[in-house]
Write a structure and sequence with these properties.
- This protein has 224 residues and is α+β, with helices and mostly antiparallel strands.
- The chain has two domains: 106 residues, Diaminopimelate Epimerase, Chain A, domain 1 (Roll); 97 residues, Diaminopimelate Epimerase, Chain A, domain 1 (Roll), CATH 3.10.310.10.
- It has four helices and 14 strands.
- Strands 1, 2, 3, 4, 5, 6, 7, 8, 9, 10, 11, 12, 13 and 14 form a 14-stranded mixed beta sheet that branches.
- Helix 1 links the parallel strand 2 and strand 3.
- It is globular and about 50 Å long.
């Protein structure tokens, strides 16, 4: 049995909602890529993180079907859980800071996986969208208040792995921030909250609230 923790990342202001993240603190217990991929598929979260060095912040990220060099909500969650000021990912070193109950990371837009950013004319149009068939990874968004930088978004991974919609996606919000070149407050999914903003040196900051949901073994996955 492989122990793992469950976090909710990018929670709303009261700790509600957020995207679930599986974290295997003892990455050495699952050493091979094939074994990690199989466990990520078994756990069924949009992403699962394996911690290879908790002091250096070295992590490895998997969806149920593939390994990712970088992803937003796993880095925010792992940064919160490990209490480090940086994470080491295959894409590069991710800065981590904390402020006012939030955990924020700094990363480059070029590290994010490709996403189709699809703008709609109103938040109500985004709310009314049905899940599209598998295909491209779509980040549907609309301004709630352009002057204030508030955005309504939903994320459709387009994968045939049982995850039709992601509750909160840091990498997609990072890409949108890079495109618009301004700070954003994104409400995604049922009510998750993502805060972003450009930083010096071409970096983008992405962050939010993290809540610990559970610690369990693989045999207890259904109780998450």
């Amino acid at each position: 049995m492989t122990d793992h923790e469950v976090l909710r990342v990018f929670c709303g202001p009261g700790g509600e909602y957020g995207n679930e993240l599986g974290v295997v603190r003892d990455g050495a217990a699952v050493p091979g890529r094939a074994e990690r991929q199989a466990l990520a598929r078994e756990l069924g979260f949009s992403e699962t993180v394996f911690v290879d060095d908790p002091v250096r912040g070295e992590i490895d990220i998997y969806t149920p079907t593939l390994r990712l060099p970088f992803a937003g909500h796993p880095c925010v969650g792992a940064g919160w859980l490990l209490g480090v000021d940086r994470l080491v990912t295959p894409a590069g070193v991710v800065g981590v800071r904390r402020e006012g109950g939030l955990t924020l990371i700094e990363a480059r837009a070029g590290w994010a996986p490709p996403r189709t950013l699809r703008q709609y004319g109103a938040a109500a149009e985004v709310d009314a969208l049905e899940v599209p068939p598998p295909g491209e990874w779509i980040y549907a968004w609309a301004w709630q208040d352009e002057a204030a930088g508030t955005v309504r978004a939903r994320a459709f991974p387009g994968r045939d792995d049982g995850i039709d919609e992601d509750e909160a996606t840091g990498a997609a919000a990072l890409l949108l921030t890079a495109r618009l070149g301004r700070a954003l407050t994104v409400t995604q999914g049922r009510g998750s909250r993502i805060l972003t903003g450009p930083r010096p040196g071409g970096l983008i900051e992405v962050g939010g609230r993290v809540v610990r949901e559970a610690a369990q073994g693989v045999g207890d996955v259904g109780s998450a």
